[in-house]
Amino acid sequence: MTYGLYYWDGIQGRGEFVRLALEDAGADYIDVTREPGRGTREMMKLMESTAEPRIPFAPPFLRDGDQIISHVANILSYLGPRLGLAPKEEALRWFANGLQLTITDFIAEVHDTHHPIATSKYYEEQKVEAKDRAVEFVTNRIPKFLGYFERVLEQNPDGSGHAVGCSISYVDLSLFQVIEGLRYAFPKAMRHYERQYSELLKLHASVKARPNIAAYLASPRRLAFNENGIFRRYPELDIEP
Question: Does a structural domain hold residue 206?
Answer without folding.
Answer: yes
